[in-house]
Amino acid sequence: xxxxxxxxxxxxxxxxxxxxxxxxxxxxxLGWATGSHSAIDYDDSSWxxxxxxxxxxxxxxxxxxxxxxxxxxxxxxxxxxxGGARNSYHLNCQAVDFSVRGDPSTIIAFxxxxxxxxxYKYYASGHYHIDTGPRRTW
Length: 138
Hints:
Layout: H1 2-19, E1 40-42, H2 51-64, E2 67-71, H3 76-81, E3 95-100, H4 104-112, E4 120-122, E5 128-131
């Protein structure tokens, strides 16, 4: 009996980790339980976005209009292929790349003013990055 119980616990834990639900964002962050503004379009997993970043995206959508989320969860191989940092916050469901119309300097100032945002960046491709890490830009 103990072996069977251990096997089931291991299997469920492994499956949840592969699904991304074993992360802080997937379980305790309740990102999946926070609703999104109707003007947010997800091209990637919406369940992977932490609650505090969903709140920021909702504020961005309310202020600037339609938001398109391009990247949330990345597997290590995808992150490597896209040139992501080795310890990218995308690997743990703690980062979002998105686009929205508006003046980039105004939007960056708005993102910088949000207490939930740690890292932030505007890319020449027109995408913005926000994450839950320490306050920084690059």
